[in-house]
Amino acid sequence: MSVNGITNVAQTYDNKSTSKTKANQDKQNEVAKQENSNNDTAAVYEKSNTKEKQNKIYKRDSDTVERMMADAEKSAQNLRDLVEKMLLKQGQTFNDSTDIYSLLREGKVKVDSETSAQAQRDIAEDGYWGINQTSDRLVSFAKALTGGDPSKVDEMIKAVKKGFELATKAWGGELPEISKNTLDAAISKMEAWRDSDQSDDSI
Fold first, then answer.
1. Which of 120, 82, 121 is nearest to 103 (CA)?
2. What does the chain look like in DSSP terms, one character per residue?
3. Is 82 exposed, middle or buried (CB count within 10 Å of its CB: 0-12, 13-18, 19+)?
């Protein structure tokens, strides 16, 4: 075989090798393009929450409702026990017909300094009967009753207002300012819950 023949074979081999390499590179580039294309597609936001929300079934949280009802009854009984104790200390009588709200409203029960201090702690900004905790409990109760269904918020707001009307009647006069502020805070928190869900739907 001549030198020219060897040269021609080498050149042919080089050409084939280059073609193969180029073909492999083209194939790799195509795969990379497809991967990038797939990555781009994955990054596109598709709104799927709406269907999920429409299909979501809201279920009343009976355990939480019962627990909160029991807590409210216990707190009311604690108040009655406290007033009874103070009345007995002052030589007065107490029975089921005693209107504790009237006694408290009209200042007929002398409150000792220890009880007064505890009451101040309870109604402080973050106390158990303070605006924050009480309004939070009302919202938690509404969420438990509705199973967290924000479409029921307006109905829950009406119920809370009705509850405050009944409390006003039971009190026998205008409720203290802390009660009105608690009502306003509870309604504001419920509206925020409702509006937050609506804004999620509009994304």
1. 82
2. --HHHHHHHHHHHHHHHHHHHHHHHHHHHHHHHHHHHHHHHHHS----HHHHHHHPPP---HHHHHHHHHHHHHHHHHHHHHHHHHHHHTT----TT--HHHHHHTT-SPPPHHHHHHHHHHTSTTSTTSHHHHHHHHHHHHHHHHTT-GGGHHHHHHHHHHHHHHHHHHHTSPPPHHHHHHHHHHHHHHHHHHHHHHHHHT-
3. middle
Query: Does residue 132 contact residue 181 with C-beta atoms inside 8 Å?
Result: no
pLDDT in tens, 80-90: 788 788 878 77
Please tell me the total number of residues recorded for the chain in this structure: 203
Does residue 135 contact residue 189 with C-beta atoms inside 8 Å? yes
Average pLDDT, the chain: 77
Taking a C-beta distance cutoff of 8 angstroms, is the pair 144, 58 a contact? no
Rounded Cα–Cα distance for residues 136 and 45 (Å): 35
Distance of alpha carbon 202 from alpha carbon 124, whole angstroms: 39
Q: How confident is the model over 10-31, as pLDDT tens digits?
A: 454 445 444 545 555 666 666 5
Half-sphere exposure of 105 (CA within 13 A, CB side): 14
Cα distance between residue 201 and residue 127, in whole Å: 36
- Nearest CA-CA partner of 151 in 67, 63, 62, 56: 56
Tokens for 168, please give them.
């006003």
